[in-house]
Amino acid sequence: MNILITFDNFYARHAITMLMSFFKNNKKNGPIKIWVASSDLSGRNLNNLQKIIQDNNACLKIINIDEDQLCNLPLGVHFTRANYYRILALDMIDAQKVLYLDVDLIITQNITSLWEQQLNNVILAAVDEQNSERVTALNLKRGASYFNSGVMLVNLELWRSSQISKKVLQFIHNSPELIQFVDQCGLNKIIDGEFLHLNRKYNFQSWMYANCDQRHIPMIVHFTGSSKPWQMLNYHPHKNLYWYYRQKTEYKSYMHDDFSIAKLLIKIIPAPATRILKKLIRLISTEKQDGIV
User: Fold this and answer.
1) Per residue in 92-150, pLDDT tens?
2) DSSP annotation string for 232-293
3) 2-231+234-246 CATH choice from 3.40.50.300, 3.40.190.10, 3.90.550.10, 3.40.605.10
4) Cα(30)–Cα(57) distance, rounded to whole angstroms?
5) Is residue 80 predicted with pLDDT exceeding 80?
6) In angstroms, how far is CA 258 from the centroid of its own chain?
7) Which residues contact residue 55 at a Cβ distance below 8 angstroms, ignoring those fewer than 6 apart?
8) Reduced to 3 states, what is the DSSP secondary structure of residue 154?
């Protein structure tokens, strides 16, 4: 099994948490090769990555990304240049197919059934995001769907022969006004609906819980959106799964990454009082800036 993940130093702890969930639930999947596309990982993060790979008898392949190829591409509030790493990395993997996984997800079961999906003559398999607004904005062909790129099983031979990386980056560079979710929008424009539709259990996104029993635990829980489980004010129904696996890593912690007393009070105080507290915090902040306090 070939797994591709991409991340920078800031997301290293979350990447290793995701890998911990993968290894704990996929111990009998045969030889596992983890391809990691990154740029300038710190010594600590690299050591922790190597340790989890070695401890689970997997093979680590590092792909060094030249960020100069990603200059002048649109980013966003919670998107960085690292979001584009996978586009370059998919040209550099010596294999027939690879399973790409975002690092803001947790794997709860064995995913052999996902890996063994037959791609035949399609470039990739993914889960439909049911985003009609993006379909229209990108002017996808009639009947096309917009997929979430957080979990993709990729036919690398077709990917390379079709020059998908080059086409995606070229489209994004030429049409930045159409890009909302960075490379995901570019991928959808070039693939244009020609992908194998996967069952949503393989990439169960946060918005899907709006019409689903929140006790439901799918095969892959994807913490989509700007609110993440390592943040205090995140209320995802399976936030505890992230922390369960993180506590087994070198990044175990008893506090959220953005811990503050103000956020703690907002979290534990009832909603009406919370609104008053937020106004009070803003007022104090403003008075400090004006030199009143």
Assistant:
1) 999 999 999 999 999 999 999 999 999 989 999 999 998 889 999 999 999 999 999 99
2) TT---TTHHHHHHHHTTSTT--SS-TT--HHHHHHHHS-HHHHHHHHHHHHHHHHHHHTT--
3) 3.90.550.10
4) 10
5) no
6) 19
7) none
8) strand
